[in-house]
Amino acid sequence: MAKTPSFSCTACGAVHSKWSGRCDACGAWNTIVEEAPLSAGPGKALGAAKGKGVALSDLAGSEPPPPRTRSGLDELDRVLGGGLVPASAILVGGDPGIGKSTLLLQAAASFARAGLPAIYVSGEEASAQVRMRAQRLGLGDAAVRLAAETNLRDILTTLDAERPALAVIDSIQTMWLDTVESAPGSVAQVRAAAHELVSFAKRRGTAVILVGHVTKDGQIAGPRVVEHMVDTVLYFEGERGHQFRILRAVKNRFGPADEIGVFEMTGDGLAEVANPSALFLSDRDRATPGSVVFAGIEGTRPVLAELQALVAPSPLAQPRRTVVGLDGGRLAMILAVLEARCGIPFTGLDVYLNVAGGLRVTEPAADLAVAAALLSSREDVALPQDLVVFGEISLSGALRPVGQTENRLKEARKLGFSGALAPAGSKTGTEGGMTVREMPTLAAFVGDTFGAG
Ligand code: TYD
Ligand code: MG
Asked: In this structure, which residue's CA is closest to atom 9 in ligand 1?
C-alpha cells in the first residue's frame, strides 16, 4: 500500500491531507508541516477473530481520594488541586524564558524535601548549568538527581531502574525516540515521546511533569499537541516586563481547573505571592479617571484587579481597539451595548484597555467594571477610590448577578474598600461594612454615576 504524506499543525496537532497556509482547526497561520508518512497499518477490518474481552465494573462503590503530596509551595499545591498525585502526568506550558525551568527546579527540590525521590532531566541545559542554578537558588542541599539527556529510550531505562516518585522532563520538545523517524520537536516525536512518558507514569506510579514551550512559528510542535494525553495542564504566563508570573490550571483530572498560583520572579528565583490582590492593586494612591477595581474570582480564590481604560479622540479612520489582559470580543460587545442601550457612541475614539500587573481576566463578571472604566475615561470622571465593581452585562443592557458575590465583597473589605457596585438581585448576604449599590441596567448605572444616558 502506498504511503501518503500527511500534514499536521504544530500548534494544535490537527492532521490535514494537504498543505495550507492556515490551519482550519485552530486558525493558526504557517503552522502546518509535512510529517513522515504514517506507516499504513494492516489495512483490514478486525475480522472474526475474537479479542479476550474487558472486565466491566459498576459505578457504585467508594473510591478513596487519591493520595497527594504537598510540596510546601502553597501556590503550586493549590494549582495542582491540593498536592501532587502519584501516577499522574502534568504538562507545564509557557513561553520560552518565562521561568518554567526555574519553577520546576524549585518544585522538584520542594518535593524532594517533602520526602519524594525526584529526578530532573534537562534536555536543554548541561547538568553543571542546572546545578549552578540550583545553588544560586539555595537548593543545593535538596535530594534532586540530575541528568542531561535527550534520548528517551535511555531516560526511560534509568527511570525504570530508579523508580523516582517524581520525574521532571525539561522539555518534551527536546526528547526523541529512535523508533520515530522525524526530527525532535516535530509533532510525531513530541506525541510519541509524551505517550511513552505518560504510559511510564501510569505503569510505575511516578508523577511525571513535562515542560512544553509555547511556540510561535511552525518548526516546533507546541504543548497543545499533548494536552489531551496528560491529566493536568498548567500554563505559566506573565508579561515579560513584569516580574509577576501566574501558573494557571486549564485542565485538571484531579482538581478544579481555572485555579491560579501567583509568583514573583526575583533575583533568588520564584517567590510565592500569598495575597495577589494586594500586589495587583499596589501603587493606586489616588482616584484616576479610567481606573476601576474589579472584584474577580480566580479558581477558588477572590482576586481584586485594577482595570485601566483610556478613551481618546482618534486621528484614524478606523479607531484603535487595544486590549491587554481581557478578551477583545468582550470589549466589542460592551462598546456595542453602551452605544445601543445607553446612547453613548465610541465612534471616532481610540479605546485602550489594560489589566494592571499582567493578570488575565476571563470572567464575564468583569463586564460592568470594563464599562465603568470606559465611561470613567470617556467622561473624565474618576470613580470613588474605595469602590469595587462586578457584574455581567447582557446584550439587552440588563445587569446580571454573578456567582460568589459574598466572597468578592469579603476580599474587597479585607483590602480596605468600603463600597461596591453590583447588579440588582446580587445575593450580597450579610457582609457588614460594605455599602453595596445595586443597579438593574447599564443605563441606570450611567444615569446614576455620570448623569447622562
Ligand atoms: P527559565 O526558568 O530558564 O525559563 P524557561 O525554562 O521557561 O525558558 O527562566 C529564565 C528567566 O528567568 C531568565 O530570563 C532569568 C530569569 N531568572 C531570574 O530573574 N531569577 C532567577 O533566580 C532565575 C533562576 C531566573
Ligand atoms: Mg527552560
From this structure: 99
Helix axes 328-342, 442-450, angle to 10 degrees: 70
Bigger pLDDT: 358 or 310? 310
Residues 185-207: what's their mean pLDDT? 94
299 lines ligand 1 (CB under 6 A): no
Q: Is the CB–ligand 1 distance for residue 403 below 6 Å?
A: no
**211 CA distance to ligand 2 centroid (A)?**
8
pLDDT band for 396, please (50, 70, 90 cuts): very high
Evaluate: CB of 400 within 6 angstroms of ligand 1: no
Question: From the alpha carbon of 265, which atom of ligand 1 is closest?
Answer: 19
Identify the weakest region by mean pLDDT among 4-13, 51-60, 112-121, 168-177. Answer: 4-13
Query: From the CA of 75, how far away is ligand 2's center (Å)?
Result: 20
Q: What is the mean pLDDT of the chain?
A: 89
Q: Residues 169, 211: contact at Cβ < 8 Å?
A: yes
Nearest Cα residue to atom 16 of ligand 1: 99
Total Cβ atoms within 10 A of residue 397? 18
Nearest ligand 1 atom, CA 136: 22
Q: How is residue 118 annotated by DSSP?
A: E
Residue of 402, 376, 422, 394 lying closest to 337 (CA atoms): 394
At the second CATH level, the architecture of 74-274 is: 3-Layer(aba) Sandwich (3.40)
- Binned at pLDDT 50, 70 and 90, residue 429 comes out as low
Nearest alpha carbon, ligand 1 atom 10? 97
Q: Which of 140, 136, 144, 142 is nearest to 120 (CA)?
A: 144
Mean pLDDT for the stretch of residues 357-377: 93
Distance from the alpha carbon of residue 96 to the mean position of ligand 2, in angstroms? 7
Going by CATH, does the domain composed of 279-450 fall within 3.30.230.10?
A: yes
